[in-house]
Amino acid sequence: MPLSPGREPLRLSQLTSIVSNALAQVFGERTFWIIADVTSHTFKPDKNYHHFELVEKDPASNQLLAKIQAKAWSRGSLSIARFEQMTGQRFTDHINVLVNVSVNYHPVYGLQLTLHDIDVSFTLGALEQQRLATLDRLVAENPDSITRVGDVFITKNKNLPLPSVIQHIAVVSSQTSAGWQDFQHTLQNNPYGYRFQTAEYFTAVQGDSNAEAFVDRLIDIFDSRVSYDAVVIIRGGGAQTDFLIFDNYRIARAIARFPIPVITGIGHQKNQTIADLMAHTATKTPTRAAELIIDHNRAFEERIGSFQKSIIIKSQQAFSAGQQALTRINQVIVNQSRSTLSNKSRQLVNIASAVSAKPKVIVYNRLNDLQQVTSNLGTFSTMYCKNQRGYLGHFISLIRVLSPESTLMRGFAIIKSNNRITSDPGKLLVGQDVEIILRDKSIISTIKKKTDYDGNEFNL
Q1: Rounded mean pLDDT of 391-396?
Q2: How many domains does the chain have?
Q3: Cβ-contact 448, 458 below 8 angstroms
Q4: pTM (2 d.p.)
Q5: pLDDT, tens digit (0-9, with 9 covering 90-100), for 439-455
Q6: Can you give the three-state secondary structure of 142-165, one letter per residue?
Q7: 3-state helix, strand, coil in the chain (%, to 5)
Q8: Residue 96 lies in a domain
Q9: Contact 279, 153 (CB under 8 A)
Q10: Distance linking the first and last C-alpha atoms of the chain
């Protein structure tokens, strides 16, 4: 369409000036609170400048409904920094936010929104609502494996007993995770010299889109048919949204129903993830997960030490009782022998006196009596000694069974403190060196910890 006579064309700058003035008249210094998703975010630390797009999508179809360029600097950048500090959530792509913005138009950069403030509670509330909804769904859809008692979740996995000793461990982690390295270092350098076997099941541990792959790794552990003592899930530290994968419904359900005890060391310092709530035992960091396993094994070793000590004490008591019984038997034999000899001596004196008074008759009768007495005495002495030897042999056998050498041969040990055998736990102090005597070895050990033991587990 040709230009009408008398009308002059506008330069582009003139038109953009008209647009700018029109928008300024409409919007002026007004600001608006809007809800949108962040995309295409970039940040220039040297200028403290954020550039991004704000978009809105249809919840049902995910179709894009609106999109506009946005920026934040000065006051807006400070607001973003405060948001990240308070929520533990990085200001980045794919987060839903409530922001305060103004409308601006620049002849070169076009229409843009300037971010002035960001509502922290909105983002925290949205994440928490999603988390609570997932917990409610877990309880509602899995009554056979997940129940709630107040604020506590009871799962099949929590009810599994931990093995007395944890040595064979399946680890689910990222291969490049620093937390995985910390976990391995702590296990391998434990102060007690324990040795562990770990099987690595590496996968991505960040981003909700990786949840299916994470569940597949748990399935791989189950399908391996290996009798692992525990499964440990590890991730290093990060922002709160980095842990959203551990609030995933499928991961949480798989952990709750898993037939091997699951220990988490996800590396967060704030609220527990849903995976933590479903697992057998939750720890804050990979290092703490390793320490928990080491402490668990140490507690078992201390229980065995207490049992060993109880056996030694009972053996010593039995040995002492045997010695006392043997002493009593010896004393009875001595006393009875003396009494018998004394009685027979008196009889011989009486016979000698009678013989002197009535030589022939008395001598004849007394000889008969003496023969009978001698025969009876021999028979009695033989029977008595035989019986006493039987008793003595029984107690000698008992003493040999209860002797320290026999006790050590049966796998027991003797504890010596300050070169003296002791059975008094009050004399054994934490940090004290003790000597543990086995069958053919002597071990010098240092007491690391003392716990009470009721003595019933291996009551003889």
Answers
A1: 77
A2: 3
A3: no
A4: 0.54
A5: 788 888 888 888 877 66
A6: CCCCEEEECCEEEECCCCCCCCCC
A7: 50, 20, 30
A8: yes
A9: no
A10: 111
